[in-house]
Amino acid sequence: MGQKRCLFFLAIFACLLFFSRGRVLNTRSDDGRPVYNHTLALTLVEYTSAVYMSDLTQLFTWTCERCNGLTKGFQVIEIIVDIEHCLQGYVGWAKDLNAIVIAFRGTQEHSIQNWVSDLFWKQLDLNYPDMPDAMVHHGFYSAYHNTTVRPAILGAVKRAKKSYGANINIMVTGHSMGAAMAAFCGLDLVVNEGEENVQVMTFGQPRIGNAAFASYYSLLVPNTFRITHDRDIVPHLPPYFYLFPQKTYHHFPTEVWVRDFSVLKHVLFGVEKVCDNTGEDPTCCRSVMGTSISDHLSYFGVELMCETWRQCNIVMSHEMESYSRKDSKGNIFLSRTVPSTEVIETKTLSKIGISSL
Ligand SMILES: *[C@@H]1O[C@H](CO)[C@@H](O)[C@H](O)[C@H]1NC(C)=O
Ligand SMILES: *[C@@H]1O[C@H](CO)[C@@H](O)[C@H](O)[C@H]1NC(C)=O
């Protein structure tokens, strides 16, 4: 290679380096859209994986196998197990992110296959309150809005804000059905709670509303990234009929499509593509047939499911009793006031937290 050519390539390389660094350093791109943060995605996928743990003691004390790595040092403030509807979520404080993290678990029905095939038939059967023409799926909406989940989450966020400041960042995440709940939660925090620093990042999210809903959503929660993995089937559902764009389900932006780059069936790495601002970028996951359930259950190589498929199975040790309360329907809440430095202190304080809920 001639010296000139060599210099030419070096220049190109330097440019690439410059521009890629520029992306990393800015949280907003030139057109004002929030910039996708790969490291944050890797961190939040670990938070989302942990919410599948059925051992509530390990989850509450953040000592579970999945509570390591990038999420180390996380402090759980509240765990919600809605036994009635088989839902689980938690709220906590991530010091290194300087943020409250809220995570929702995906469905724990007997089989993921059944849950996925039901998605084909979900109707747009609810008007989203106070948003003309915005339609959503009642089931997804209610899982967040009409269960024990919402009041417990909002209560925990209020407690956290007392300790960590009113303008704190809130990051909402979830996988699958939990991704749908995360989206409704993020929107709720903005619309009904007046929160200003809300970010949503979901993994393998199904469509949850129509085009009108998607436009409202993207205006109100612009800092939202919807990660889709290669041929994951769930982001393709409920179906999008592009001939009837006003009548069907429609994703909100911004999708980030992660394709597997594999050699001889070994996945070497994922290639991420940040998609356009329509929510339905035809060059992203929609450019392939979404047929894979296994792509749905793993994101960035992190497993997003329980260790076993057992419906709403939980384990909890006796030490947790002082933190926990049960409502009349058998739903379980583990709460702690913040900040807690000592075990003794948290024990006495947690009683206050429980009764104040
Ligand atoms: C991306 O997220 C990580 C935390 O996961 C943070 O340390 C880093 O500063 C973020 N980068 C930008 C540009 O916001
Ligand atoms: C909320 O749930 C209750 C009982 O589960 C039901 O009767 C009510 O219609 C639901 N409300 C909405 C808005 O879905």
Q: Please bin the fraction of helical residues.
A: 25-40%
CATH architecture assignment name: 3-Layer(aba) Sandwich
- Specify the number of helices: 9
Q: Based on helices, strands and strand pairing, what is the structural class?
A: alpha/beta
Which stretches are low in confidence, meaning pLDDT under 50 for 5 or more residues running?
Answer: 6-26, 342-357
Small molecules bound in the structure, each named once:
2-acetamido-2-deoxy-beta-D-glucopyranose
Sheet of most strands? 10 strands, mixed
- Listing every helix as H and every strand as E from the N terminus to the C terminus, the arrangement reads HHHEEEHEEHHEHEHEEEEEEEH
Termini separation? 71 Å
The CATH homologous superfamily name equals Alpha/Beta hydrolase fold, catalytic domain
Whole-number total of structural domains: 1
Strand composition percent: 15-25%
What is the CATH C-level name?
Alpha Beta
Rg computed from alpha carbons, rounded to a whole number of angstroms: 21 Å
Please tell me what the overall shape is.
globular
Number of strands: 14
Q: Report the mean per-residue pLDDT as an integer.
A: 86
CATH third-level topology: Rossmann fold
Largest sheet, order of strands side by side? 10-9-8-7-6-3-2-1-14-13
